Amino acid sequence: MAVKETFLDRLINLPVSDRTEGFIIGGILLVLGYLLAWLATSAFVRTMRFRLTAHQLLVWRRGIFYFLFLLFAISALHEMGFRISVLLGAAGVFTVAIGFASQTSASNLISGLFLIGEGSFSVGDTIQVGATQGEVMSIDLLSVKLRTPDNVFVRIPNESLIKSELRNLTRFAIRRIPITIGVAYREDIGKVRGVLLALADRHPLVLDEPAPQVTMQAFAPSSVDLQFTVWTRKETYSDVRDSMQEAIKRAFDEQGIEIPFPQISINSGEMNALPVVLQESGNRKTT
C-alpha cells in the first residue's frame, strides 16, 4: 500500500533517518548566525558612533544584523532539508501580491530610505512641515513622528516629507530672532534705534556676534516699520523672544516712544465755513 506524501515531505528532501541530524545542524547555524550578527553590529556601532547620528546607527545596525542572520537562516534551512527554491518562489509571489496591495506603503518606505540617507534632520530636532511644527520623536521607514509644542502627537508619512518644504529649526547652534516694530512718524528713528540696541546689549542671553541690528522695513499707513534682529542659542530662542518683546514695550513706555494703532484721516477737499445762527430773547444774530 503506497503511503501518501504530505506537503511537509515534499518540502523537505532529507530521508526520515537524516532529518534529526539536519535539524540539529540547522539549529546550530541559527544560534551561530545570531551571535555573529550581534558581534558584527556591535563592532560597527563602536567604530561609527562618532560619524553617524543615533538614528542612522540604529538603521545600519538593524540592516547589518538582519542581513547576516538571513544568510545563516538560509543555510540552516538548507541543512534541514528544506527546498529553498520552493520557499523563495512562495516568498516572491507573496511579495508581488503585497506590493500591488500597498503601493502607498512602498512609496513611503522608499522615501524613508532617502530621508535616512540624506540626514536632513535627526531625532530631537525641531522641524516645520507646512503648518505643523514639532520635535522629532522617531524616524521610521514609513513615517516620522513629531511632538508639537502643545504636546500633541503627529504622524507625517515619509512621502509627504519628500514632496514638501521642510525647515529644520534646530539644525544649527544659534538662531535669529526678528521682531517687527511700528513707531509713529513723528518719532526720532535714531533714538528708537539706540533704545533697541541698548536693550540687546543688556540682555544676558543675546549674542554679541552676530551683532544685533535695527533696519527700516517700510512706510506703513500708520507707522514706520522697523525690524529689530538679535541672535541667541537655539535652546533659549523662545525665552529670549518673549523677554525681549516685553522689554521693548517697557522701554518705549519709559522713553515716551509711541507704537501707533491703525488710523485713517478723511479729507473731502476744500470746504466753506457753515453759518452759525444764535438766538437770544427773540433777537436773531447771524455769525
Explain this structure.
This is Small-conductance mechanosensitive channel. One of its GO terms (molecular function) is mechanosensitive monoatomic ion channel activity. Homoheptamer. Residues 179-259 form the Mechanosensitive ion channel MscS C-terminal domain. The chain has 287 residues and is an alpha+beta fold. It folds into three domains: 13-101, Helix Hairpins, CATH 1.10.287; 118-168, SH3 type barrels, CATH 2.30.30; 174-255, Alpha-Beta Plaits (2-Layer Sandwich). The chain contains eight helices and ten strands. It has helices at 7-11, 16-48, 54-79, 84-101, 103-118, 158-163, 189-202, 237-255, and strands at residues 126-129, 132-139, 143-147, 153-157, 166-168, 174-183, 213-219, 224-233, 277-280, 283-286. A five-stranded antiparallel sheet has the order 4-3-2-1-5. Strand 3 and strand 4 (153-157) form a beta hairpin. It is elongated and about 130 Å long. The protein starts with 6 loop residues before the first helix and ends with a strand.
Write the layout of secondary structure elements.
Elements lengths: L6 H5 L4 H33 L5 H26 L4 H18 L1 H16 L7 E4 L2 E8 L3 E5 L5 E5 H6 L2 E3 L5 E10 L5 H14 L10 E7 L4 E10 L3 H19 L21 E4 L2 E4 L1
Antiparallel strand pairs: 1-2, 1-5, 2-3, 3-4, 6-8, 7-8, 9-10
Helix pairs in contact: 2-3, 7-8
